Amino acid sequence: MQDNDKYEKTFTAPDANVLIVDDNELSLKTAETLFNFFQISVKKTRSGHEAFDLVRNESFDIIFLDQMMPDIDGTETAANIREWEKKFSNRKPLVIIALTAAAVYWEMFYSNGFDGCISKPLDTNTLAGILTRWLPKEKIKPVQSLQFIKSDICADKDLRNELMKMFLEDECNTYDDIENALKSDDIKKAHRLSHSLKSSAGHLHLENLKQAAADAEKSLSAGKNQITERQLLVLKEELMSALKKLTEELKTPER
After folding, report:
1. Entry pTM
2. Which range of residues forms the domain containing residue 183?
3. Does 198 map to a domain?
4. 112 with 213, same domain?
5. In terms of DSSP bridges, do strands 116-119 and 95-100 run parallel, antiparallel, or are they unpaired?
6. N or C: which end of the chain has fewer CB within 10 A?
7. Do 165 and 242 lie in a common domain?
């Protein structure tokens, strides 16, 4: 029985082989925790190039592939995999699922070799549906005893504490990095950093920061720098506010 807040585990898949490709550490940690709930041990990488090498040398049932990464993006990585499958592989085509903060672009993913997409942060119910649809049926093992998990895995207290610590370490200098990238006219890097910050903020439900990062990302899209001083100021203020809020939350003892 499901409700909006909890997911009742109905299966595990301990023999599944899953690869997650994402350059955001909070995204990787959240995904790993969620897959562990289904007893799936995942292999992780932050690089499209490395993902391509892994696919050529190992066998996976599903690859969850982020779109925006620093070396080659998800679309190019998927294209490389599909081209390699056509020319050299006699294996069954790999199931490729796009990890995206904007599932509205699902048509773009389907037309570029993906089998589906899932929004970040990952939702337990949506992920369970993808796993039961795409994993080999013999790897789906029904469970006998009831076990529940929050549909929003990031609401789990222990995971949230870990994500907050990661955010404080990973994102404390992000504004400076974006500003320096803009000064050196590296629009692509500034765009990617804004995108990653948006994703990190989303995992911790920092909605104001998420929106500020999304605005910056949009203004830096297509290789054009259309960001305003006002947008940069708001981004800086929201990031500083988020860092302060998370620091205080971690210091507050549980009641």
Report:
1. 0.87
2. 159-251
3. yes
4. no
5. parallel
6. C
7. yes
